[in-house]
Amino acid sequence: MFTAIFGSFEAGIIYAIMALGVYLSFRILDFPDLTVDGSFVTGAALSAVLIAGGVNPFLATLLALFAGFAAGCMTGLLHTFGKINNLLSGILMMIALYSINLRIMGRSNIPLLNMETSFTKIGGFFEDIGLDAFFNGILTAVGLGDSLPGTWGILIFMIIVTFVIKGLTDLFLQTEIGLAVRATGNNKQMIRSFSANTNLLTILGLGLSNALVAFSGALIAQQGGFADVGMGIGMIVIGLASVIIGEALFGTKSIARTTLAVIGGAIIYRIVVTLALRVEFLDPGDMKVITALIVIIALTAPKIIDHSKEKKRKAKRRQEKLNMLQSSAERKGENHAAFKSDS
């Protein structure tokens, strides 16, 4: 069980980068961008091809980020200058990226199991400095020696990378350009009245969103040991699930808190899926159904809770009015009785 939870936490912190990208488009820009399903694979495909060709894996991962940025900008161009509906522009780019990804890969699947990736380098470094032995020794001491993870390096490294990206995202959204991007998502007409170019701001926001998605795809490919042309199917739903779960559980009082909530939502989502798949009558093929159910619950549960609270508030107000009327009637009766006794 510990190994499964550890693996899901590790995957969740990587998927959290993708969820941050979805947050930028879905919440900040109010743009339902389906490019995510394609740009996730673009990042995985490009990094896998470059790593297989002998390129430094860290450089390959960085180049995947720029490829995702280009894909997001293309979606923005289709929407702003092509005047295509936002949902349709994302769908068109997603379809186009399927063929582009096949062109990049040359085939439908590229294995990375026997190649040096960013994570093998990180795992080797943590093993050399003795950090893996230190943490595994602690687990053995508390009685978890039978379920030791292969390396702690990936988890620790990804926590650092994810929170650096979170911090940079928070800083960007508080800059003048970031505030303009947020205003574009809230009210385009208002920000246009200040002579802001909403077209360029939309393109920039979508570019940054898909850059994070592609970066996450490159890391997932290296963690899983392969890049597949179909690995991006349903990524937008996973990203939305992470955003919605995080917002429902941790709140959205500030940008910093919301981005932290998105990271927490991604981790919780992966853990819930992992635990659900351990149920006997479910198998890995049911993961999409589980994802859909999680999103449905995350969307409907807050509304049901709010409706229940509103009913209780109305009932309380109604009872208070009845009590006031009753006490008023009692006072009138007492005054009437006093008047009779005086007369």
Structure description:
This protein is an all-alpha fold. The protein is 78% helix and 2% strand. Strands 1-2 form a two-stranded antiparallel sheet. The protein is globular and about 105 Å long. The relative contact order is 0.17.
Oligomer: single chain
What is the H/E order? HHHHEHHHHHHEHHH
Strand-pairing-aware structural class: mainly alpha
Helical content band? over 70%
Question: For the residues shown, what is the average pLDDT?
Answer: 87
Numbering strands along the chain, what is their spatial order in the largest sheet?
Answer: 1-2
- Proportion of β residues? under 5%
Query: Which of globular, elongated, flat, extended, rod-shaped describes the shape?
Result: globular
Instruction: Work out the radius of gyration.
Output: 26 Å
Summary tags:
single chain; 343 residues; mainly alpha; two-stranded antiparallel ribbon; 13 helices; 2 strands; globular
